[in-house]
Amino acid sequence: MATIFYDKDANLDLIKNRKVAIVGYGSQGHAHALNLKDSGVDVRVGLHAGSASRKKAEAAGLRVLSVAEAAKEADLIMILIPDQTQRKVYEEEIAPALTKGKALFFAHGFNVHFKQIQPPADVDVVLIAPKSPGHMVRRQYQDGRGTPALIAVQQDATGQAHALGLAYARALGTTRAGVLQTTFKEETETDLFGEQAVLCGGAAALVMTGFEVLTEAGYQPESAYFECLHELKLIVDMMYEGGISWMRHSISDTAEYGDYTRGPRLVNEQTKAEMKKILKEIQTGAFAREFILENQAGRPMFLAMREQGKEHPIEQVGRKLRDMMSWIREAKKDSSDPGSR
Ligand code: NDP
Ligand code: MG
Ligand code: MG
Description:
By secondary structure, the chain is α/β, with parallel strands linked by helices. Helices cover 58% and strands 12% of the residues. The protein contains 17 helices and nine strands. A nine-stranded mixed β-sheet has the order 1-9-8-7-6-5-2-3-4, sandwiched between helices. The site of NADPH dihydro-nicotinamide-adenine-dinucleotide phosphate has 25 residues, from helix 2, helix 5 and strand 7. Pfam families: KARI_C, KARI_N. Keywords: Amino-acid biosynthesis, Branched-chain amino acid biosynthesis, Magnesium, Metal-binding, NADP, Oxidoreductase. This is Ketol-acid reductoisomerase (NADP(+)). It catalyses: (2R)-2,3-dihydroxy-3-methylbutanoate + NADP(+) = (2S)-2-acetolactate + NADPH + H(+); (2R,3R)-2,3-dihydroxy-3-methylpentanoate + NADP(+) = (S)-2-ethyl-2-hydroxy-3-oxobutanoate + NADPH + H(+).
């Protein structure tokens, strides 16, 4: 069984004795900076020159410095900028400030696990990864609750790395829900696998292919959109609340019978073999190399695929239909808060 830590396991004083720099003020950055500040921690935000999020951070009452200044001033530095920019910013602005006994924190293990960032041996290296987008981390905290998170220690130079990680997790509100012990390797590999095979890659491909099959057979795109995309949320909500059996309990017997007899024909041994290949590419570092090279080349494929994705017919009909649903319009307005996506 996994080890899970709660408020009672964490000593908030450990983080209150530290000067904390939050580097980045996007999805995670704004939530970490504000939750820590509200927990009584001495926080400053590090942002690059010309940063669009600077005004938002200042308007929220935070002190904003350059990344280099924030890293120099602080003795705990949490890196919350996009994974693909972390190496450069680390080398240019953070590494020079990493003196003995400081702590370097991450919310995802990618750069450390794949050795893009190799911190000096005399600093603590810790992961606190909320299992939730930043706006949820903030909203739950404000409501007196918390989102679950993961904790991992890559380097314990001071003998206090784990306790310091728990203190940070508590200030962030995550020990209210529970913080699960893991490693940088496990967090990185399972996170990449989940998003590629199931959550983002798998789900998007399934929805788009289902939509194509219905529209190519002559059904209206609007009907195809409702059946293949819109209703997915309702099904996922049920799985989220009570697992797969609870979802199956709520749907009709017709749907349930179709689920048992048709689902495994789609996601079959061949699909599973491909999932295992995808996992191997993650474990061997092949995916990481591919992504890093793509970024170094200026992201030609990535940007082309992004544009191509936007042109899919499901996106066109979706825009029209979502406009009819006032609660979706409102939720979207809501999520244009700092950094939430
Ligand atoms: P975002 O893309 O939301 O971060 C954007 C922020 O980074 C902005 O404030 C941006 O400034 C700033 N930024 C971008 N480039 C630089 C730079 N060169 N120097 C300084 N600041 C810069 O990141 P996320 O919050 O999505 O991700 C941060 C980390 O958290 C990642 O490691 C990610 O894997 C992890 N994570 C993310 C989750 C999520 O839900 N998004 C969930 C769990 C972990 P500006 O826009 O003003 O230029
Ligand atoms: Mg991820
Ligand atoms: Mg139906």
